[in-house]
Amino acid sequence: MSVAFRREGDEEHLEPKFEIPIPTGPNLVTARGLALIAQRVADLEAQLVPGGDETTVKALKRDLRYWQTRQITAEVVPAASGETVEFGTTVTFRLNGKENTLQLVGDDEADPAQGLISFSAPLARALIGAEAGEFLPFGGREDAIEVVSVKVSPTE
């Protein structure tokens, strides 16, 4: 007998919907990052309306579970000293002759286009602990990164 005649419905052939993966390691956030997470939770809760489209409601609930988990596990990192590159600092550096400025933030706050990079990113890990004037290895090259300046990031 053909499978077409045995199938109860199309549901069994739909792609399964998985939870949004939680990044490994601690959920370090800035005060700004914690506020952004709280705002995301509030926005998602406001979008959940009784009697809404089932597919939309499922997607919203999935997103809400992720952001509520991130809110519960968030650890606000105390203000950085600014002496070395660490979470919550803004670092200006030269890589391959090009000067860049990045702020080290939490995973959910990261937005490289805005100069916000996750503390767990390979470039951030290479920079952490460095002081201004230091040269660092990166990408298999010694002295690939020159740290120009380090300062405490502004809090919002």
Can you lay out the helices and strands and say which pair or pack?
Elements: H1 3-6, E1 27-29, H2 31-47, H3 54-73, E2 74-76, E3 89-95, E4 98-105, E5 116-118, H4 122-127, E6 135-138, E7 141-152
Parallel strand pairs: 1-2, 4-5
Antiparallel strand pairs: 3-4, 3-7, 6-7
Helix pairs in contact: 2-3
Description:
By secondary structure, this protein is α/β, with parallel strands linked by helices. It has two domains: 25-76, no CATH class; 89-152, Transcription elongation factor, GreA/GreB, C-terminal domain (Chitinase A, domain 3). The protein is 30% helix and 26% strand. It has four helices and seven strands; from the N terminus they run αβααββββαββ. A five-stranded mixed beta sheet has the order 5-4-3-7-6. The protein has a two-stranded parallel ribbon with strand order 1-2. Helix 2 (31-47) runs antiparallel to helix 3 (54-73).
